[in-house]
């Protein structure tokens, strides 16, 4: 009986027909983790590019259609850009911030509505910022994504 058992064990130790299945069973969880990570990463990058494109397109619209007001005036209403950017990014308007500033000879001023002294280089800028929280399907926890852009309007 012991001899038969020893022969059976020797024969089984030389048999490698199920080795691939066992190796696959060991590697399958590792492959699943890699695939899940790649899916989360690609979805996150896609969402990040989407909000950056929303900022860029909104600022391009400002440059393409400046007929809303005279850029040389300081009282121009640019709040429509917030709505445009929010719609394009699929976020509420509260997650889009609009900042305006005036620079006189390269020095940032405290007031957008002011004027530079005669002879100084006057530049007014409009800056858009979108913030969106992204959570992955598998592993990524909530991450705040930010996209920004600015354009000189005067």
Give the helix/strand layout.
Elements: H1 2-14, H2 19-64, H3 80-89, E1 96-104, E2 107-108, E3 122-134, E4 143-152
Antiparallel strand pairs: 1-2, 1-3, 3-4
Helix pairs in contact: 2-3
Précis, in short:
Helices cover 45% and strands 22% of the residues. It is an alpha+beta fold.
Mean pLDDT: 84
Helix content estimate: 40-55%
The major beta sheet can be summarized as:
4 strands, antiparallel
Rounded to the nearest angstrom, the distance between the terminal CA atoms is 98 Å
Kindly report the spatial arrangement of strands forming the biggest sheet.
Answer: 2-1-3-4
- Classification by helices and strands: alpha+beta
Uncertain segments are none
- The SSE string, one letter per element, is HHHEEEE
The tally of helices reads 3
What is the percentage of strand-forming residues?
Answer: 15-25%
Number of domains: 1
Describe the global form. Answer: rod-shaped
Count of DSSP E strands? 4
Give structural notes.
The chain is α+β, with helices and mostly antiparallel strands and 154 residues long. It has one domain (14-152). 45% of the residues lie in helices and 22% in strands. It has 3 helices and 4 strands. It has helices at 2-14, 19-64, 80-89; strands at residues 96-104, 107-108, 122-134, 143-152. A 4-stranded antiparallel sheet has the order 2-1-3-4. The radius of gyration is 30 Å and the shape is rod-shaped. The chain starts with a helix and ends with a strand. 12% of the residues are buried. The mean pLDDT is 84.
